[in-house]
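Progress note, sequence design subtask.
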């Protein structure tokens, strides 16, 4: 078990990549601290992990609200006394072309996808630094490296996540706290449920593997980066896209 007895906070963990990460981290021996907005979904995710024999606990957290982030981290510290892994995965989309995007759409995505990563990381940075160990894994996106039509807000946020990843790797690395990012391509999650099939066909054809990714394929990479097997990996943004970018 690569993550045996580690305490792993995972945001956006009630579905999609985050839920896959919760299952993977727990299977690897960690306690999966499942954080998301909807109480019923959080409870269902905890039950699903526990049904597979994993350890999990749930917290209702809005990463855009620093208060709820701080309460969750305080509760985790009160129970376990440490935080070993933070997976910043929570994210939303509010797509529109530049000329039609509202300020509310722009702000909503920045608040969750960028500022939320800042909130959660700042909340655990001193804890991990005092421990002299920790691993932070941020979920970026190929949109943040190559842009994407209709995603000014999302692309800007994910590009920012990559920039913060590399900055924090420099700042926290001397304390043995590693910060890395996964950069997924198009992954079959609920975010794609409303995308027309002909558009999905185009996405598949743009990938050299001619398919969408699966959440567990991203989660596997997240688990590696979180683990001691990646003990000398710091500041990387590792693409998990089936080769869509070349």
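Output:
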């Amino acid at each position: 078990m690569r993550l045996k007895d580690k305490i792993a906070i995972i945001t956006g963990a009630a579905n999609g990549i985050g839920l896959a990460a919760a299952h993977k981290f727990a299977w690897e021996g960690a306690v999966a601290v499942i954080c998301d907005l909807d109480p019923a979904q959080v409870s269902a995710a905890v039950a699903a992990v526990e049904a597979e024999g994993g350890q999990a606990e749930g917290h209702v957290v809005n990463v855009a609200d620093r208060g709820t982030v701080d309460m969750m981290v305080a509760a985790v510290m009160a129970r376990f006394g440490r935080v070993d892994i933070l997976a910043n995965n929570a994210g939303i989309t509010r797509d529109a072309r530049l000329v039609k995007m509202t300020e509310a759409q722009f702000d909503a995505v920045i608040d969750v996808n960028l500022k939320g990563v800042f909130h959660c990381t700042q909340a655990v940075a001193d804890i991990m630094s005092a421990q002299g160990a920790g691993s932070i894994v941020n979920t970026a996106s190929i949109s943040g490296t190559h842009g994407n039509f209709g995603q000014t807000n999302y692309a800007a946020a994910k590009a920012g996540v990559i920039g913060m990843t590399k900055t924090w790797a420099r700042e926290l690395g001397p304390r043995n706290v590693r910060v890395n990012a996964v950069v997924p391509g198009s992954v079959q999650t609920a975010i794609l449920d409303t995308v027309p099939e002909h558009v999905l066909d185009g996405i598949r054809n743009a990938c050299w593997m001619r398919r969408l990714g699966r959440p567990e394929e991203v989660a596997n990479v997240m688990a590696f980066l979180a683990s001691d097997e990646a003990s000398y990996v710091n500041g990387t943004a590792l693409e998990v896209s089936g080769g869509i970018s070349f």
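The chain has a mean pLDDT of 94. Work on this subtask will continue into the next period as scheduled.
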